[in-house]
Amino acid sequence: MERAMAGHGAEEHPHGADRLCEAGDRVYSRAVRRGRVARRDAEPVPCLLELALLHPDPDDMDWLVPTSPQEVMTRLLRGMYDEVSASQRRVGSAVAAFERYAGLGRQVQPAAAATEGPAIRVLDGLARIQAAMDEATQACTTEVLTVQPGGIRREAELSEGLHRALALRGRGVRMRDLYTHVARHGQGLLTYLELMGDAVEARTLDEVIDRLILFDRTVAFIPANTDRTMALELRHPALIEYLVTVFERLWRLAIPLTAPLPDTGIEGISHREQSIAALLAEGHQDAVIAERLGISVRTCRAHIARLSETLGAASRTQLGVRIAQAGLDGPPRGAAARQVSLPAPESRTAR
Hints:
It contains 16 helices and eleven strands. The model is unreliable at 1-11, 111-117, 334-341 and 346-351 (pLDDT under 50). It is α+β, with helices and mostly antiparallel strands. The termini are far apart.
């Protein structure tokens, strides 16, 4: 795994955490003593980031904080037990490294140690994110909660985590997934849910929060940048409790995937168009509405055009008035809650 995560720097620093190069040992030791090190000072030793001995400071990305020597020791011991049958020489190297890190651990001042903790960890790069997710999957025994934003789920996205989902199902772990209503139209999602059987329960909403994955209400993963090449691993109990509460409230509002979406109670206006109307009434632009509902801007504008035609509006300003007159300026409430008559379109001459 270390070589897989090493990337371009592996040729210059062909070693593991148990046998650091001289420059890497010097920078890591300084980071442990001081609690952090400037990112520019670590540029000559990319091995420290590649081996996860340093990682970005969540509060200031220009600085790197060290993984605690205790955690490094735990990692080394885990690897030692896995490889002991294959190489006795590797055992001796790991034991020597253990002693070195133990010595560094005694030098850490309490204030410096407090800056590095397991509550929030920045995962920089897809390889580290995947490794952390795999580790959390292996440790999970009860429940996984996920929020999957966007529209129709691509098969590549679904297959990416399929091995984890199957492993969880095999251990009897229950999974609950939240998607947008648009995801209902993707065959890939339906195939995935059929494969998982009753191990997964899925519901949908008009819009959801950004991606969230919660394992056993103990550890959570959320994106740390827009292209999702960085993630935060959260273990702070207060943060976890907050995220669980958000999920549960969204879950109660969501509609089971096996149930149809409620009728709007307004002839000629679909549930999606009702959601678009409410967001238009809030003053959002087309691109924002499309992103929140998980559809393309082109599809969003086609729905807006149908709304204008159905409501008899000749301009965006007039459409806003018509939306309010029809009672579409609030969240969807379904046919049972609202039966309205559309305002009569004005004559062409009046426009």
